[in-house]
Amino acid sequence: MRECHNMQSASVSKLKLNDQKTIYIKVDWKDNETDLFHIVIVDSDNNAWSGRYSHEFAERNRKNVEETLDQYKYNVKLALSGYCQKFQYELNHKHSESATFVWKKQYGDIALLQHGVVPVHQDGISCKKQNLIDILLAENADLKQKINEYEMNNGLLNEELKHSKEELEKFICVKTSLEISLYSKFIQMLNSKKRRIDLLEENFNKIG
Known about the structure:
- The chain has 208 residues and is α+β, with helices and mostly antiparallel strands.
- Helices cover 51% and strands 32% of the residues.
- It has an 8-stranded antiparallel beta sheet, with helices on both faces.
């Protein structure tokens, strides 16, 4: 089971590890001079772990999987979103206060390669849980705002559509009226010409 809530600079995801335990991760996307992202992990025992993924680590792992820089960054975000079935996850404890978070990618039908690894250390839990809640609340507020904007835009579009239909109906009425008027004048002109021709023929026959 995977759930993900994205923001512009942060994301919160729910991942299932290879041992079937569930973890929650908060990723702050930095992509600055030193780091690609910072991460906080809350494990199934409610322990919090934090760490950072440096460009040095990223470059080392990128070379191992032979991806371009853009491809690698895209796949890292895909992996940490939890939506792609090609990735597997491990949280390996070195001792009580340090661990490594590993994600592996399936290449083809056989190869399962380490795509990335982040050293993490145990951190305080209360603040970290609050951070996760803050992100989800902000995301919820953002979604509500987008829904309101959508409903407003939809209302404006419906008004414009209604106005366009009314204008189209008026145009059709004017067009129909104009066609009828032109047709009527055309028939009058034809009748007038026909009468003139009949009169000319009558006068010609009288002369003859």
